[in-house]
Sequence to fold (250 residues):
Amino acid sequence: MIPPRHITSTAEVITLTIPVGERIGSTEGDAVKTIHLWRAPMLCPQPVRAAASLLLAAGLSISQVPDALALTPSEALKNTRDKVVRLLNNPELKQPERQTERRQQLVDIVSERFSYEEMSRRVLGTQWTKLNETERTQFVQVFQHMLAKSYATKIEGYGSEPLQYLGERLVKDCAEVRTRIFSAKNEVLVDFRLVERTGNWFVYDVIVDGVSLITSYRGQMARILQRSSYENLLDLLRENAALPMHARAD
Fold:
């Protein structure tokens, strides 16, 4: 994500001043752009697949779906955080020669809690409706790789910092969990938006100090799609994810 150079906020509007660049995630260039974002209410995403398909993908039958969710949204996040902290505090995995292994395990843990398909649908907007199933699967995989490369280092740096759960709110099958992370230098407000699927909660957006991850990526991708093609956007994502540029779905 292109990091904001300056952020101001009121009760209804967030103003961001960010560097403008072609490459997603780039901080290069001196040009800047000011964006005004209206604070939006939490919107519950519509299911992107039929319930039966979701159940089959999860290896469940209709009779196996619980009547009530096993965990609340906050409990689900705490469960994932506990796994992350245990991993980061594992002395054996702190050895330099096991850094790659530890990072992959970290990505696997976080991926269990994130809905990359829902995130992909939201960042692409109307472009998502133009893709077939193969193209959608391809985009989700590339977008997941790019996000993993971005967040793995940040989690390694902040994953063990004290975290306070401030509360949660539910709207049908969606939830928002508010937290505060205490680092050595400052405090950061981080909100997680989750959607319930097959009896579990999955993150589809992360809001850091009022700035939405999905909104930021959607704006960057929309600008690229306006100036170029979807294929060029996919190649830019591959470049940021360090994936082969020629990789294509069969």
Notes: The beta strands are 6-9, 13-19, 32-38, 163-171, 174-182, 187-197, 200-208, 211-212. Residues 133-158 form the longest helix (26 residues). The chain is about 40% helix and 25% strand. The domain at 72-241 is CATH 3.10.450.710 (Nuclear Transport Factor 2; Chain: A,).
